[in-house]
Amino acid sequence: MHDPQKPRFSALKRILRYVRGTLDYGLQLFSSSTIDLVAYSDADWARCPTTRRSTSGYCVFLGNNLHSWSSKRQPTLSHSIAEAKYQVVANAVAETYWLKNLLRELHTPLSSATLVYCDNVSAVYLSSNLVQHQHTKHIEIDIHFVRDLVVAVQVRVIHVPSRYQYADIFTKGLPSALFEEFHTSLSIRCPPAPTAGER
Fold it and tell me: Which InterPro entries match (predicted)?
């Protein structure tokens, strides 16, 4: 805002054109035979050119429906891609843990472990590694929180190839075909045209 330049103005125009073209889109909910909690988490690493902070994103499905999502800049600098990705895994686990407790209070307890998908093998390994390394001490609380739930078999952190990482839509620009596929997988669609009897 204080120093507008042509590239930023072009990006703003692109965003406005996208918003104008998707005004009719919405989140559609469907009946689901399962009530499992599944989360996808992702982070870019130090992508912001001015602050070098990472952007975190996750989405949580309850059954077949997208229930919650988040995309925001991480409050601290990450020393590695594994750390940035692990912090968003911890955020996704915290969200699913809260939802699991809410469902228990509503007398609908979940019987299976929550699945949290991450596309970084090191972050997946950190979730079940019982050895605390010196270079991970600064994220110790996140590590213990997630690891305790993994040990209690309430959460499973699983590697997912980037091709199936739906949370990428919240953290980075994607090719058009992949973007279309991911937002369809998140149940973001244009509603069907009403029939004559529905008006």
Answer: DNA/RNA_pol_sf
pTM of the entire structure?
0.77
Whether residue 39 is contained in a domain is answered as yes
Furthest-apart CA pair in the chain: how many Å? 67
- Compute the distance between CA of residue 89 and CA of residue 125 in angstroms, rounded to an integer: 12
Cα(115)–Cα(118) distance, integer angstroms: 10
Name the one residue in this structure whose structure tokens are 């994607």: 174
**DSSP state at residue 190:** P
Quote the mean pLDDT of the chain: 81
Of 83 and 107, the structure prediction assigns the larger pLDDT to 107
Which pLDDT does position 118 carry in this prediction?
92
Residue 142 scores a pLDDT above 80: no
Helix/strand/coil for 45: coil
Q: Note the pLDDT of residue 59.
A: 92
At residue 4, φ and ψ (nearest 5 deg) are: -70, 140
66 touches 187 (CB < 8 A): yes
| Overall number of domains in the chain | 1
Reported in sequence order, the residue ranges of the chain that DSSP labels E, i.e. its strands, are: 26-27, 37-43, 55-62, 65-73, 114-118, 155-159, 188-189
How much is the average pLDDT of 49-53? Answer: 68
